[in-house]
Amino acid sequence: MNLGIERLEAIFSTVALQEYGISRDELIQAAEDMALTCRDAWTLGLMRGFNGNMSIRLASEKGTGCMLVTGTGVAKGHMRAEDLALCDMEGHFLLGAKISSETPMHVAVYARRPDAKAVLHVHPCALLALSMRLKGEREQFLRMPVLESALWQKALGFAAFYPNGSQELASAVAAGFADPAIRAVFMEGHGLCAIGKTPAEALGVCEELEHMGKMQLMSGCIAE
Fold first, then answer.
1. Considering 70, 113, 137, 138, which has the largest number of Cβ atoms within 10 A of its Cβ?
2. DSSP string across 26-45
3. Is the pTM of this model over 0.85?
């Protein structure tokens, strides 16, 4: 997906990028990857309307680095260069759009998981429906007589419900990633936060878990 290199450079000027030590080529690639990943997530039904958000960690020659994040209130299926923002790894705004209210969650996850290059937060319908059917019984989540079931159960962490954008939610999600085997954390009554070494990997984790959730709902493998 082409966001327009000239428009990106106008928003994230060369002088500003030099100030923060960010590579122009890396920023452009991250912006294209983010737009494509969000578009795919929207096409798959993992994001709807303005919900969900995403970030990509960028290397920096100065300090601890920066991250590219989606702006607040952005339609993820139709992103433009104007919908992106740059902030530092503590969540302080640097350039671009107004940053997502969920940025503190991304900050906390990167701090807990230095192996993560991308963080993707989606609102998967099947997983949310499954959580309501299970009424909080986490041990029943994705429990089915299917080959991949045990694998994805071990890769899924959980966080209790907290208001979106709150520091409590950010801390709970980060704590859910404490085990290096965890690849995504389900936020009760909210959605899913997945990590990956690439944006495509983070999206793939979301796809797999949503597929498993849909399978469980369809099969009726739910203990009453």
1. 70
2. HHHHHHHHHHHHHHHHHHTT
3. yes
